[in-house]
């Protein structure tokens, strides 16, 4: 059933927490759930989850902020929040099509930490840490710091590369999550990028507004608004994640003039229904966030249990287009495996296209013909 209310789940599993502590992002980070013992204190785990927690230690760390943990159903292993952050034994199984670097980022780094795949924009990986870790993370080969590969960003070499590469007009800061930096450290980074004349704008990819809305302080927003044009791409997958605290944090960012889009990942058993996607996009718009991309889950190792069919993604877009506002509809994309970049995938609305014009079907299945441009001269008197 549709639910577009914004609820607070505080204090949830932390009834003794002081409100000032709860609202402090440092307290939230210090009290993250990172162990099997911590999970079992509150949740009834399945064997698959217990084994997953024990075996995931050198793949991708487990870490869940109290804020996000409060959204987890203690008894339901199919809970859409639980499936995103609690490891399962299936993560240890690797499908032959899966890769450790499914977007081919490592082979497009002119400087360690700086991915330059498209001519006019770069991806700047500035940290390997996040507030919580998503089990399907595309960058799990480096994110969280427990696997063998390490992120070793060469800061000065990256800035020098950007300064001498005038075709770069757009820098996407990601990682990991740069909003984990202190205000001062983040400002040093933004200031340095802002000083490069050919960089027109900066984007930050962050799941902090969802995992840790307490980090979106007025002081952070006051600092960010000095570096416009600034875009933030958030990452919410299920309507339940949009709590009243998240809505308020996003409101502060919007009030600071930051343009926000949402990138969600289509995940089996999490958000693979038209109903959940519709609630998600409607709540995002109410938070002044434009649904931007719906990603087919990348072929990251150990993610088969979280991936859906492509048809499922197409059916979801079909279930949105025409049935809600155009602003609410994200672009469904597949990141071309191995480094092909984002490729849009859409339902097929073209029935026939030839020299006589195009025949289309609309969202109700009705057909319409749009004629080709006439090649005969127009008689203008
Ligand atoms: S927040 Fe982003 S970078 Fe961090 S674990 Fe999740 S998907 Fe990966």
From TrEMBL:
[4Fe-4S] cluster binds at residues 130, 134, 137. It comes from Oceaniferula flava. SUPFAM superfamilies: Radical SAM enzymes (SSF102114). Its cofactor is [4Fe-4S] cluster; pyridoxal 5'-phosphate. Keywords: 4Fe-4S, Iron, Iron-sulfur, Isomerase, Metal-binding, Pyridoxal phosphate, S-adenosyl-L-methionine. Its EC number is 5.4.3.2. It catalyses: L-lysine = (3S)-3,6-diaminohexanoate. CDD domains: Radical_SAM (cd01335). Residues 116-328 form the Radical SAM core domain. One of its GO terms (molecular function) is 4 iron, 4 sulfur cluster binding. This is L-lysine 2,3-aminomutase. The lineage of its organism: Bacteria, Pseudomonadati, Verrucomicrobiota, Verrucomicrobiia, Verrucomicrobiales. The modification N6-(pyridoxal phosphate)lysine is found at residue 342. Belongs to the radical SAM superfamily. KamA family.
């Amino acid at each position: 059933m549709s639910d577009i209310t914004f609820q607070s789940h505080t204090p949830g599993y932390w009834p003794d927490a002081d409100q000032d502590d709860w609202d402090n992002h440092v307290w939230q980070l210090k009290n993250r759930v990172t162990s099997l013992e911590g999970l079992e204190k509150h949740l009834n785990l399945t064997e698959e989850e217990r084994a997953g927690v024990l075996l995931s230690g050198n793949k991708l760390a487990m870490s869940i902020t109290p804020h996000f943990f409060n959204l987890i159903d203690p008894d339901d292993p199919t809970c859409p929040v639980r499936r995103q952050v609690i490891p399962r034994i299936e993560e240890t199984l690797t499908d032959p099509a899966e890769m450790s670097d499914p977007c081919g980022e490592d082979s497009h780094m002119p400087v360690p930490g700086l991915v330059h795949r498209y001519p006019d924009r770069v991806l700047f990986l500035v940290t390997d840490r996040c507030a919580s870790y998503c089990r399907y993370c595309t960058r799990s080969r480096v994110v969280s710091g427990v696997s063998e590969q390490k992120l070793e960003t060469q800061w000065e070499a990256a800035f020098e590369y950007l300064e001498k590469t005038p075709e770069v007009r757009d820098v996407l800061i990601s990682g990991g999550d740069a909003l984990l930096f202190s205000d001062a450290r983040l400002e040093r980074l933004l200031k340095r990028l802002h000083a490069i004349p050919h960089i027109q704008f900066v984007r930050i990819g962050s799941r902090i507004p969802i995992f840790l809305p307490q980090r979106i302080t007025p002081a952070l927003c006051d600092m960010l608004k000095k570096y416009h044009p600034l875009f933030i791409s958030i990452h919410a997958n299920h309507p339940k994640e949009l709590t009243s605290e998240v809505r308020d944090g996003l409101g502060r960012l919007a009030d600071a003039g930051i343009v926000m889009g949402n990138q969600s990942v289509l995940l089996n058993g999490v958000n693979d229904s038209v109903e959940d996607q519709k609630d998600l996009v409607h709540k995002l718009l109410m938070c002044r966030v434009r649904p931007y991309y719906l990603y087919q889950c990348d072929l990251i190792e150990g993610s088969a249990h979280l991936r859906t069919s492509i048809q499922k993604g197409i059916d979801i877009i079909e279930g949105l287009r025409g049935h809600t506002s155009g602003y609410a509809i994200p672009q469904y994309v597949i990141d071309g495996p191995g480094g092909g970049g984002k490729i849009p995938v859409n339902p097929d609305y073209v029935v026939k296209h030839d020299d006589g014009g195009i025949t289309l079907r609309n969202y109700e299945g009705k057909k319409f013909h749009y004629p080709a441009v006439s090649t005969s001269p127009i008689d203008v008197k």
